[in-house]
Design brief:
about 30% strand; about 150 residues; alpha+beta; 2 domains
């Protein structure tokens, strides 16, 4: 079974190893182009995960920086990013602006539990510091929970 993905990104290569890395990239990716200090990769093709990971592991010692973004045929998105000494894979999640990322009801319950713990901790301080602080905190947290559609 094959899985297709669209990809695009850049690999910045340390000076002395450019040609070697470019030749390998040209064999791995549907398109590899040269630019000033690096290699641009892009295309739409059958996704060969192990081949790509092996390639990125091999070029890590010669890489200065880089990111390669992928979008799968099922709209799954992920990227590989060079983090200083190796390439790491990151999966993406869709988050809409202004809303926290809450994946499941269990996540909501955990979030509410954490907020309740914080409120209880702050309540003890509120009575010592200022009664008005408690009312303000309670009001803000309630407003936030309503905005997040938790309450």
């Amino acid at each position: 079974m094959s899985y297709y993905a669209t990809l695009g990104g850049d690999i910045v290569v340390k000076e002395n190893n450019f040609n070697e890395v470019f030749e390998r990239a040209d064999k791995i990716f549907p398109y590899a182009g040269k630019w000033k200090d690096g290699i641009e990769v892009s295309g739409y093709d059958n996704y060969h995960e192990e081949e790509i990971k092996d390639f990125l592991d091999e070029i890590a010692p010669y890489t200065e920086s880089g990111e390669i973004f992928f979008t799968g045929e099922d709209d799954t998105r992920w990227k590989f990013k060079f983090t200083g000494n190796r390439w790491e894979e990151f999966n993406s999640k869709c988050v809409y602006e202004g809303e926290p990322f809450i994946e499941s009801p269990r996540d909501k319950a955990e979030l509410v539990g954490q907020l309740i713990d914080q409120i209880q901790d702050n309540m003890q301080l509120d009575f010592i510091i200022d009664g008005e602080l408690y009312d303000t905190l309670k009001s803000k947290i309630t407003e936030t929970l309503h905005n997040w559609s938790i309450l």
